[in-house]
Amino acid sequence: MSPRWEPNPEVRRGRSVVHSLHANLVFTTRYRREVFTDETLRRCEDIMIEVCDSFGATLVEFNGEHDHVHLLVHYPPKVALSTLVNSLKGVSARLLRKEFPVHIRRHLWGGHFWSSSYFAASCGGAPLSIIKEYIENQKRPG
């Protein structure tokens, strides 16, 4: 008897696609100001979860320090990563400024919360060296 097949929760299925896309994101506060406390980090995580849900994505992991946050996001291929990032940063900045106005204003002024740049890296699956070797070893037609 063959072993029972167990579905991998990291692999999702759509109508015409099977995918497992993960991104490691890092956002820093404007001028690397030390804005985050435990309370504001918890609220930031809640906001990020809600934004991811609205895109059909999942916030797999979240953590941060006083001046930046790290996210691991599992997202569908129909979502442009830059669009997701813009929404994550925009919604969180607006809500955190609204909910913690005195604290945020003490550290940041003007209209900006996050730095305009961010770090994004794809992650998951086999190491790049293995994928490169696999592709190199494929037979060419002919």
Short characterization:
This protein has helices at residues 38-54, 81-99, 101-107, 128-136; strands at 12-13, 18-19, 21-28, 58-65, 68-75, 119-123.
Number of structural units classed as domains: 1
Report the CATH C-level class. Answer: Alpha Beta
In N-to-C order, the SSE pattern is EEEHEEHHEH
* Terminal Cα span: 39 Å
Decide which structural class fits the backbone. alpha+beta
* Unreliable residue stretches: none
Organism: Nonomuraea glycinis
InterPro entries: Transposase_17, Transposase_17_sf
Domain Transposase IS200-like: 18-138
Pfam family, one: Y1_Tnp
Present the secondary structure layout.
Blueprint: E1 12-13, E2 18-19, E3 21-28, H1 38-54, E4 58-65, E5 68-75, H2 81-99, H3 101-107, E6 119-123, H4 128-136
Helix pairs in contact: 1-2, 2-3
What characteristics describe this protein?
single chain; 142 residues; alpha+beta; Alpha-Beta Plaits; two-stranded antiparallel ribbon; 4 helices; 37% helix; 23% strand; elongated; transposase activity; DNA binding; Transposase_17; Transposase_17_sf; IS605 family transposase
Description of the molecule:
- α1 packs across α2 and α2 crosses α3.
- The strands form 2 sheets. Strands 4-5-3-6 form a 4-stranded antiparallel beta sheet, with helices on one face. A two-stranded antiparallel ribbon has the order 1-2.
- It has a single domain, classed as Transposase IS200-like (Alpha-Beta Plaits, 2-Layer Sandwich).
- The protein is 37% helix and 23% strand.
- The model has no long low-confidence stretch (mean pLDDT 89).
- A hairpin with a 4-residue loop joins β1 and β2.
- With 142 residues, the protein is an alpha+beta fold.
- This is IS605 family transposase.
- InterPro entries: Transposase_17, Transposase_17_sf.
- One of its GO terms (molecular function) is transposase activity.
